[in-house]
Amino acid sequence: MHKPLLAAEVSEPGPQPGLGGPVIGIIGSGDFSRSLAARLVASGFRVAVGSRAPGRVSRAAFPAGAELCSQGEAAQRADRLLFVAVYPEHYHSLLGLSQQLQGKVLVDVSNASSLSRQEQSNAERLAQLFPQSSVVKGFNVLSAWALQAGACDGNRQVPICSDEADSKVAVLQLARRLGFSPVDVGGLCAARGVEEAPLVLFPSWGRPILLTFLLFLFFYGYNFLRHILLPFLDQGENNFYQLPLVTVNDTLPAVALVTLALVYLPGLVAAVFQLARGTKYKRFPGWLDGWLCSRKQLGLLSFLCAGLHAVYSMCLTLRSAAGYTLLNTAYHQVKAGVENSWVEQLVWRSDLYLSCGILGLGILALLAVTSLPSVGNALNWREFTFVQSGLGYAALTLSIMHTLFFGWDFAFFPSAYRYYLPPVYLLALILPCTVLVGRVFLALPCLMFRLAKIRRGWECTRHRPPNHLEPEATGDV
Ligand SMILES: NC(=O)C1=CN([C@@H]2O[C@H](COP(=O)(O)OP(=O)(O)OC[C@H]3O[C@@H](n4cnc5c(N)ncnc54)[C@H](OP(=O)(O)O)[C@@H]3O)[C@@H](O)[C@H]2O)C=CC1
Ligand SMILES: [Cu+2]
């Protein structure tokens, strides 16, 4: 019923380059206009770029298939779609074009200049200025450059909204033909959110960062209490010099270990849910969904803490305090007449924990690299699962071993529980060990086969033998 918005709409698979595809208009000749024109021409459309002063615009900046003309001419030449690539504060300067723009679809591509939900959206303002045209909001990609970037960015999602269904369909089709994945986000009242999306700072990182920060605060506070405050109050020991480096370095591995455990815990919880419900088709609770979606961020934060811990550890011996302690120990040893202070057991301990730590960090680095979209996309499904799950558990196991070797047998002596507080590494081990035990438990054949069946679509209620199904189906239970 709606008139074809693009000539190409009738003849799939789309307009042919140079063969007279539909004309798309663009008002404005700035950065966005140039990038859009290049992409439109490359996709086979003809383009009319309308400028206030076409003679002043550099012809070389636009592709050969784009025609530079006045704003009025562009409005007239456009078959139906016109992009408004002008800053919103200049929309009113286009009012003289109202006649030519009548009945046309105006695509508002502007981004918000600040985050303030109360304000009217730019698109709604444009719709008020041009009541005779229909306004569609869309194409809010991260930058004009992202718009131009070809195939590698092709799957980028672009939200699109409008109150006019026909016009919205036309813009959705155009976006698809330009290689984007358009998402219909509803009416023009959604425009404000669309305009603000490029301004939101790391939306998926807030909670993981907060969680990591809280863990840091907890472990740092615990270390401060156990190693600095209580010894000071109790025996007047002055260990405050440890605050900037030693205490931070005692805290970072604990945070890294617990955060890494938090990457793998939601997967186990999800498996338990599926086993208990006997189906994978029921939605997980919201908190679990959110947690599952934060695993990549948590993993990268864990890697950051582990990396910092490695750098801090390498600097430990550079400190003046380390030099003094070594000299003092040597002096005491000379006085006591001890010639050889080699303790075979402790030599093994330090070599083992260092080696496990280095290997664990190396694997974490590999995981971090494969979590980059460009690298992850190059792996097939099996490779990705192997790296993210198999190697992930290897990193977790090595980190636990690193901590266990570090703790050695000291945890078995009462002196480790100064002021009745267990050492921090013991606290940090609780969650990771629970995750590892949970994983081993799920690898038991009976659970593993049932879970594999569920993940292939088997449902316990549907596949039960009829005599089991009956009472439930009739509601007798
Ligand atoms: N959707 C997205 O992801 C992105 C959207 N944008 C949006 O695109 C729009 C244009 O951005 P961009 O191309 O970077 O900006 P530019 O400053 O590079 O270009 C703006 C153009 O507007 C034209 N214009 C028309 N009327 C006026 C006027 N009265 N005063 C000044 N200029 C006028 C000018 O062209 P001429 O002189 O030829 O008339 C100028 O080249 C903005 O609304 C911006 O928010 C920008 C980047 C990404
Ligand atoms: Cu360590």
UniProtKB/TrEMBL annotation:
<dbReference type="GO" id="GO:0010008">
    <property type="term" value="C:endosome membrane"/>
</dbReference>
<keyword id="KW-0560">Oxidoreductase</keyword>
<feature type="domain" description="Pyrroline-5-carboxylate reductase catalytic N-terminal">
    <location>
        <begin position="24"/>
        <end position="111"/>
    </location>
</feature>
<keyword id="KW-0472">Membrane</keyword>
<dbReference type="GO" id="GO:0008823">
    <property type="term" value="F:cupric reductase (NADH) activity"/>
</dbReference>
<feature type="domain" description="Ferric oxidoreductase">
    <location>
        <begin position="255"/>
        <end position="396"/>
    </location>
</feature>
<keyword id="KW-0186">Copper</keyword>
<keyword id="KW-0408">Iron</keyword>
<comment type="similarity">
    <text>Belongs to the STEAP family.</text>
</comment>
<feature type="transmembrane region" description="Helical">
    <location>
        <begin position="352"/>
        <end position="379"/>
    </location>
</feature>
<dbReference type="GO" id="GO:0006826">
    <property type="term" value="P:iron ion transport"/>
</dbReference>
<dbReference type="Pfam" id="PF03807">
    <property type="entry name" value="F420_oxidored"/>
</dbReference>
<dbReference type="GO" id="GO:0015677">
    <property type="term" value="P:copper ion import"/>
</dbReference>
<dbReference type="GO" id="GO:0046872">
    <property type="term" value="F:metal ion binding"/>
</dbReference>
<dbReference type="InterPro" id="IPR028939">
    <property type="entry name" value="P5C_Rdtase_cat_N"/>
</dbReference>
<keyword id="KW-0812">Transmembrane</keyword>
<dbReference type="InterPro" id="IPR051267">
    <property type="entry name" value="STEAP_metalloreductase"/>
</dbReference>
<keyword id="KW-0285">Flavoprotein</keyword>
<dbReference type="InterPro" id="IPR036291">
    <property type="entry name" value="NAD(P)-bd_dom_sf"/>
</dbReference>
<keyword id="KW-0406">Ion transport</keyword>
<feature type="transmembrane region" description="Helical">
    <location>
        <begin position="209"/>
        <end position="232"/>
    </location>
</feature>
<dbReference type="InterPro" id="IPR013130">
    <property type="entry name" value="Fe3_Rdtase_TM_dom"/>
</dbReference>
<protein>
    <submittedName>
        <fullName>STEAP3 metalloreductase</fullName>
    </submittedName>
</protein>
<keyword id="KW-0967">Endosome</keyword>
<feature type="transmembrane region" description="Helical">
    <location>
        <begin position="391"/>
        <end position="413"/>
    </location>
</feature>
<dbReference type="Pfam" id="PF01794">
    <property type="entry name" value="Ferric_reduct"/>
</dbReference>
<feature type="transmembrane region" description="Helical">
    <location>
        <begin position="252"/>
        <end position="276"/>
    </location>
</feature>
<dbReference type="GO" id="GO:0005886">
    <property type="term" value="C:plasma membrane"/>
</dbReference>
<dbReference type="GO" id="GO:0052851">
    <property type="term" value="F:ferric-chelate reductase (NADPH) activity"/>
</dbReference>
<feature type="transmembrane region" description="Helical">
    <location>
        <begin position="425"/>
        <end position="449"/>
    </location>
</feature>
<keyword id="KW-0274">FAD</keyword>
<keyword id="KW-0410">Iron transport</keyword>
<keyword id="KW-0479">Metal-binding</keyword>
<keyword id="KW-0813">Transport</keyword>
<keyword id="KW-1133">Transmembrane helix</keyword>
<feature type="transmembrane region" description="Helical">
    <location>
        <begin position="297"/>
        <end position="319"/>
    </location>
</feature>
